[in-house]
Specification:
36% of the residues lie in helices and 18% in strands. The protein is of the alpha/beta class. Strand 3, helix 7 and strand 4 form a beta-alpha-beta unit.
Length: 313
């Protein structure tokens, strides 16, 4: 689906004057919010089968790329980039991390950081059976690479795929974790020192969610009375170290995705940028019909506890 087509459907679903909104009609969409959907999709798959959301991976689309700024907000004192500005960037620059010349050099850097109690860990949300995490290691990023998915079935498949690596590697820089991105309960606060990447989870959850409203981002969320996308953004904020980025891709424009992410019909830019994220950038990839979102955690910001953690208190 193109950006133009997605916008058409987003407007139909969410615009205040939409006939669909008046009739409470829901556009057909798979139940992406349900664990049963994902377990069913991976059932019967082989370990070497691969699905790449958006038809691209690190190797084919993100090692070096161009994008055009759609919008950019920075905390007071920061330089805001004008819409329409074209950038050439590498994945290392996008995430603010090191890319070494060889995997061996990356391992040496990893061990050095470990010795100093530092990390450039990269958290991949909703990893599925993508090869993105593997490509991070083969392209000499330091890591470790933490791949999480809510489906234990796909984590079993991925574990089988990389069993040789787990058995033979003297230094293991990949972890496969069953976890819900809405809580990230397997990770400690401010434990991710590289960045967080999502290549399609927020996008599909936006598609399967209900109408955006003023109260909490949207109503009729099939996952309950919570905004799943806002929960994911809050969880990402909690586990990131200050000044580290959360990057995700979507075909939906900022007027919809930012309202999802920050939970209000008219999201409060000044409050979000100053208190939670010191920079929010949206860009359009020039060689793909996709939008890139990058939120950079504010210095000294403290993430809110996840819903699961609050229950434990």
């Amino acid at each position: 689906m193109s950006l133009r087509s997605r916008r058409f459907f987003d407007v139909l679903q969410h615009h205040p004057s939409s006939l669909l909104k008046a009739s409470r009609f829901r556009l057909p969409c798979p139940p992406y919010h349900k664990l049963e959907y994902w377990d069913g999709m991976y059932k019967g798959m082989e370990a070497d089968e691969v699905h790449e959301w958006g038809g691209f991976d690190l190797q084919s689309g993100l090692l070096q790329f161009q994008y055009e700024t759609v919008m950019h907000f920075a905390a007071s004192g920061g330089m805001e980039v004008q819409p329409g500005t074209v950038h050439t960037a590498t994945f290392a620059e996008l995430m603010g991390i090191s890319q070494l010349s060889t995997p061996e050099e990356a391992i040496e850097k990893y061990e050095e950081l470990q010795g100093n109690n530092q990390n450039e860990s990269l958290l991949v949300l909703g990893c599925g059976n993508s090869k993105f995490g593997e490509q991070l290691l083969t392209n000499s990023f330091v890591g470790p690479v933490l791949q999480i998915d809510i489906s234990s079935k796909v984590i079993q498949l991925m574990t089988k795929r990389y069993q040789r690596y787990f058995d033979g590697a003297s230094v293991k820089r990949m972890e496969l974790i069953v976890d819900d991105a809405r809580g990230l309960t397997s990770l400690s606060p401010e434990s991710v020192g590289g960045g967080i990447l999502d290549k399609g989870l927020l996008d599909v959850l936006h598609q399967s969610a209900g109408e955006i409203t003023e109260s909490y981002g949207f109503e009729d969320d099939a996952a309950g009375d919570q905004n799943s996308i806002r929960l994911i953004v809050d969880s990402a904020h909690r586990v990131l170290q200050p000044s580290r980025p959360f990057v995700f891709f979507s075909r939906s424009s900022p007027e919809f995705m930012l309202r999802r992410a920050f939970g209000t019909d008219h999201w409060k830019k000044d409050m979000v940028v100053k208190k939670e994220w010191k920079e929010i950038e949206v860009g359009k990839l020039l060689d793909r019909d996709l939008l890139l979102y990058r939120f950079t955690k504010a210095d000294g910001a403290r993430g809110r506890a996840s819903k699961q953690q609050r229950k434990r208190r």
